[in-house]
Amino acid sequence: MSTLSSKELRTLAAVAKEKGDGRLAQFTVAFPKGQPVQIEATVVTQDPQSNLQATAEEQLQRQLHHPVALQLTQLPSWHAPLPASSVLAAPVAPNTDLVAQSQQRSQMTEQLRRDFPLPLQVLDVDPEQKRITILPSPAVPANVLTLHAMDLQLQANHPGWQIHLIPPPQSLPLILFPIGLSTIAPAQQERLSASIWALQSWGSKEVVVIGRASTVGNRAFNLALAKARAEAVAQELRQHGIEAKTLAEFTAPEQMRREMELGLMSFQSAEIVLPATTSVRSEMEQIVSRAQS
Description:
Layout: H1 6-16, E1 23-30, E2 37-45, H2 52-64, E3 68-76, H3 95-115, E4 120-126, E5 131-136, H4 144-157, E6 162-165, E7 175-176, H5 189-202, E8 206-212, H6 219-238, E9 243-249, H7 255-262, E10 269-273, H8 280-292
Parallel strand pairs: 2-3, 5-6, 8-9
Antiparallel strand pairs: 1-2, 4-5, 7-10, 8-10
Helix pairs in contact: 4-5
């Protein structure tokens, strides 16, 4: 098993959201050799259910006839209107345009609320510049992959507008590699693209990429493999104007024990981290301050 047809993917997506009342915001599948099918899904719903992950995982295993490891995130939808103070005014326009811009801002705000049904810290709609800035609440349990997918959908739904969806501070997704390889697989490009999008949204110019390898096989080979994985990700980041230093971590303290707990895939990876001198949270505070001024 190495691929899924479009029909099967639609079936899996339907099963993942079957018990919810909302919509599927993000869905990815990976096929690590000799391990369960790795599925990540995010459902936006008004009624999160504690047993949804177990129920969906069981049904997926029956459909695929193969072990499945499902990571399911349920995001509570948000349909309450924003307080009046949260909708930020555009620069003062001539009186002849002020009413039209106010109406357009109101209509766009309502539409964005339908398209992005999650709590927001900032929603800035500027009809004159055709620019929208969205900063979700830090309490929103949405990962970078989910928010990137929602950003792309917003771009498609509102052509002609500059939409800036800024993810709250959080860890970036691991870039996973097949056993013994340092080539970034097409299935991992979504993770890398989402990470680059988040870094650019945060204004991050420098990162550190930590390459890892599992303890299976030759030590010297695995150390070189960890370095190569870090460099493969770093090269992609540099092409997007992000300076990336690389480190190889093999073997990490207690790695064999952690491999038993977390699985080998966690160490067949590269991790993108921000330097200690970088504060994404401070950058978010500046964005909020600028928007509210």
